[in-house]
From TrEMBL:
Gene name, Swiss-Prot/TrEMBL: kdpC
Protein name stated in the entry: Potassium-transporting ATPase KdpC subunit
Source species of the chain: Paenibacillus stellifer
Transmembrane segments: 12-33
Subunit field text: The system is composed of three essential subunits: KdpA, KdpB and KdpC.
GO cellular component terms given for this protein: plasma membrane
Length: 190
């Protein structure tokens, strides 16, 4: 009986400590960095557009496209199949991506196709692409919108983020933020 009482007391004490810890961490995060603590959400007025941390599908060719998602950008279950480069399913998906790229971007030679536009990330929800991937899409977007390529180049440059702490990762462009800025530019064609 004594063992049961000690076990129950210890369990209750640990549950209370865990609850206090979670509340403390949440409170500190809300005070120190509320935007990040709440999911880095982006709003247009009061309308939620998305999160800058989770990739989204942009189906219109008038917008910049992100990386391939093997989970259809479903944030409820991130992940991706861990196929080897020789896997037939992987080869077919990559070939389909290349075929789609050629159809949507006939003015861009295949040798200028950045690898991150035909490969998916580990989570399948990567919100960023390389600056080269953004620049490779400029001819298509300029042709469809009438926005001069030079203006789109400047937009990509403005939305290119550097390495974290100047050391980690690579330069990257957040596709959602870039497309929001693109949608605010006056298009010459409709």
């Amino acid at each position: 009986m004594k063992t049961i009482i000690i076990t129950v007391r210890t369990s209750i004490l640990l549950m209370v400590l865990i609850l206090v810890y979670q509340l403390a961490v949440t409170g500190i995060a809300q005070a120190a960095m509320p935007h990040k603590a709440n999911g880095s959400l982006i709003y247009d007025g009061k309308k939620l557009i998305g999160s800058e941390l989770i990739g989204q599908s942009f189906t219109s060719p008038r917008y910049f496209q992100g990386r391939v998602s093997s989970i259809d950008y479903n944030a409820a279950s991130s992940g991706t199949p861990n196929y080897a480069p020789s896997n037939p399913d992987m080869l077919k998906r990559v070939q389909d991506s290349i075929t789609q790229w050629k159809a949507n971007n006939p003015d861009v030679p295949l040798r200028q196709l950045p690898i991150d536009l035909i490969s998916n990330s580990g989570s399948g929800l990567d919100p960023d692409i390389s600056p080269a991937s953004a620049r490779a899409q400029i001819p298509r977007i300029s042709s469809l919108t009438g926005i001069p390529a030079e203006q789109l180049e400047q937009l990509v440059k403005e939305h290119t983020a550097g390495r974290d702490l100047g050391l980690f990762g690579e330069e990257h462009v957040n596709v959602l933020k870039l497309n929001i800025a693109l949608s605010k530019l006056p298009a010459n064609k409709h």
